[in-house]
Amino acid sequence: MNGRPTSDHGARIHPTAIVDEGARLAEDVEIGPYAIVGGEVELEAGCRVGPHAVVTGRTRVGAGTRIFQFASIGEEPQDKKFEGEATELHIGRDNTIREYVTINRGTADGGGVTRVGNRNWMMAYSHIAHDCRVGSDCVFANGATLAGHVTVGDFVIFAGFSGAHQFVTIGDHAFLGMYGGVNQDVPSFVMVSGRPPRPRGINSEGLKRRGFDADAIRAIREAYRLVYRLGRPLDEALAELRDRADEQPALRRFIESIEAGTRGLLR
Fold it and tell me: Of 92, 148, 180, 181, which is the active-site residue?
């Protein structure tokens, strides 16, 4: 109901906002002018919803997440097969969701839930479609787009207007360059750029910033060379990397991200 707190202690709700009385709001939630919050929404402590933003559906937003003006969060999936099933969107804590970002809830065919982890930064006009699984500490630059059923690891960076085809898997610490729309799986640590996008090496600068030591980066670079540069069959290359993984644990993440994919390796 307009301007009326819907938690026991009273969230800060602008008089022009429309908040369904069924919504569950922590006491320090802030909701700005003309925002709309639906009756099945849960906003945890410290959430902020900006002017004209819409948060709807069975949507749970974790503590400290900021949703800026005109974002659309938890709306029905853009899927012609969707027939109004009771699906959900789960967003973790301390995310930044900027202007005009759209995040859709899941579909029955995709498990029913779209999931977003913690501390992600989503710039204006980025989109996360139904049934995606996004890890934590990722950056989606302006216009970055995920189609349905995409799986994204932790610390992945999407440059402006990059994106992923349905069912693609993108591993931890990967980097997609500007306009890089991928239709096959990208392993952990790999940097993709160009038009059409192609693997260009490993994300060494990002790994340094996140505390990977020189030995780990050297091992990852050699793993990339083995898979992408030497022309070896993939099964043979992975078998050799498994033998090395006991000495360098970072290689396990590289191997597992390749094995987890279902769309074929982008090479």
Answer: 148
pTM, full prediction: 0.94
Residue 50 appears among annotated catalytic residues: no
Averaged pLDDT score across all residues of the chain: 95
Neighbouring residues of 80: CB distance < 8 A, sequence distance ≥ 6: none
Contact indicator for 110, 89 with CB cutoff of 8 Å? no
> pLDDT per residue over 161-211, tens digit each?
999 999 999 999 999 999 999 999 999 999 999 989 999 999 999 999 999
Is 110 an active-site residue? Answer: no
Q: Which of 79, 131, 137, 172 is catalytic?
A: 131
Domain with CATH 1.20.1180.10 in the chain: 208-260
Q: Class assignment of domain 208-260? A: mainly alpha
Superfamily of domain 12-149: Hexapeptide repeat proteins (2.160.10.10)
- 148 as an active site residue: the answer is yes
The active-site residue, picked from 90, 130, 149, 173, is 130
